[in-house]
Structures are given as C-alpha cells and as structure tokens.
Amino acid sequence: AQSVTQLGSHVSVSEGALVLLRCNYSSSVPPYLFWYVQYPNQGLQLLLKYTSAATLVKGINGFEAEFKKSETSFHLTKPSAHMSDAAEYFCAVSDGGNTGKLIFGQGTTLQVKP
Amino acid sequence: NAGVTQTPKFQVLKTGQSMTLQCAQDMNHEYMSWYRQDPGMGLRLIHYSVGAGITDQGEVPNGYNVSRSTTEDFPLRLLSAAPSQTSVYFCASSLTRTVNQPQHFGDGTRLSIL
Questions:
Q1: How far apart are CA B99 and CA A95, in angstroms?
Q2: Which H or E run contains B78?
Q3: DSSP 3-state assignment of A27?
Q4: B35, B55, B99: best to mutate for the A interface, most A CBs within 10 A
Q5: Which pLDDT value is given to residue A4?
Q6: C-alpha distance from residue A47 to each of A35, A43, A62, A85, B56 (Å)
Q7: Side-chain half-sphere of B76: how many Cα atoms within 13 Å?
Q8: CB–CB contact B48 A49 (8 Å)
Q9: Percent of residues in chain B assigned helix, strand, coil, to nearest 5
C-alpha cells in the first residue's frame, strides 16, 4: 500500500534562506507524486507533480522537487525563502488503483522569519 | 473562472442535526471527491465519484452520504452529526481519475459539531 511521510511538522527558516521540506514515500507501483500548498483559510493549491518524465520537477513560486528512487524521496526545495511562502505544505502520492485517491502526508508548516 | 466552489464556508451544528455541504465545479471534470482534514493527519478521502450517477466509498465514509446527479455538483450529507465529525471538509475535482491528474480543491467548509 502507498504511504507518505513528511519529516518535521514545523520548519522555520529566515527570509532569504534555503527551504527544504522532506517527503518520503512508499509505493508498490511507480509513484505519481505531488506537492500542494495551503495558505491560511484556503484550499490546497498544486505546487508541482512528478509523473516520471523528469526527476527534477519545477513548480510555481520558485519551488522544485527531486525524485530519488533509491532514497524513496521527493523533497521540496526553494533557494531563497520569502515571507509569502509561509503556509502548510502537503506531499501526496496517487494510490495507484482506480479510485483517483491521493494519499497525503501529515503536512509541514513553514514559518518564515524576517 | 470559479473552479471548485464550496458552501457554506463555516457552519456550527448541534449533535444529531443533519446538513448538506455543497460542492460545484465548472470545469466539466469527471472526477470529484470529498476529503476531511484533521490536525496532524493530512487529508483523508471520504467519498468519490468518477462521473454522474457513480459514487463509491473512500477511507472514512461512515456517517456521510453522497450523490452525483449532475457532472457539476457533488453534495456531501451528514446524516446525524457527531462531535467526531468536527473537521475541515474539502471538495476536489480532476479531469479524470487517472493517477497523474492533479486535483483542484475548493476553499473548504469549516464545520464544528457541539
């Protein structure tokens, strides 16, 4: 069965510093992986997705993620944090079946300090 | 471009009351789903639909009913509200249930059961 683990429920960085949000997955089939961002009192917005075309995936707002099969990881990075990046971030994997279900990690709250 | 629209945004119910959470999308998406979001647990699938007239259970369906009479609408019914159903509910849609399709989320309904 597919599962997702996000390491660290809270991450705090200074403005301008590197952002690294960790995601590890478990999947019995080739995975399709997603990162979503949730701003306060809003729904989830797709940041980027991995669908096996390229291991380094670029998303919106300067974020990118690298798929590493050997490490079963799909970590999200951004070279320089901005105050507007403060939000909750979710990693998700498709369940591989025919339900269309996404399996979400627990979420990581990113705090950006001035 | 409305996307996925959820109403109401906030609701307080008493234990035992029933209510319907509305969800509508204007993107002609086949696939629609309902998730609940609880602290530290990510999002969990309640029910989903792969087209008008077709619905199925997700991970946590107990206490909820759905129907899909049109492509656009996918309401979620709480039959007899319980405090354990206090949560944030998200409706999502995608073009199809294919595993690489990103899902589009509404802004959520914040529900409290007293």
A1: 8
A2: strand B76-78
A3: coil
A4: B99
A5: 93
A6: 5, 13, 9, 12, 28
A7: 34
A8: no
A9: 5, 50, 45
Query: Which chain A residue has the Cα nearest residue B42?
Result: A106
Nearest to A101 among B42, B48, B108 (CB): B48
- Interface contact A94-B90, CB threshold 8 A: no
Give the pLDDT mean for A41-61.
Answer: 89
B89-113: per-residue pLDDT in tens?
A: 999 999 987 777 888 999 999 999 9
The 10s digit of each residue's pLDDT in B6-65 is: 999 999 999 999 999 999 999 999 999 999 999 888 899 999 999 999 999 998 999 999
Q: Each residue of A6-40: pLDDT tens digit?
A: 999 999 999 999 999 999 999 877 788 999 999 98
Please name the member of B40, B45, B48 whose beta carbon is closest to the beta carbon of A9. Answer: B40
Chain B residues in contact with A48 by the CB 8 A cut-off are none
Interface test mutation site (partner A, options B66, B103, B104, max chain A beta carbons within 10 A): B103
Q: Are A10 and A111 in contact (CB under 8 A)?
A: yes
Report the distance separating Cα B27 and Cα B8, nearest Å: 20
What type of residue is B50? V
Residue A24, pLDDT score: 96
From chain A, the residues in CB contact with B54 under 8 A are: none
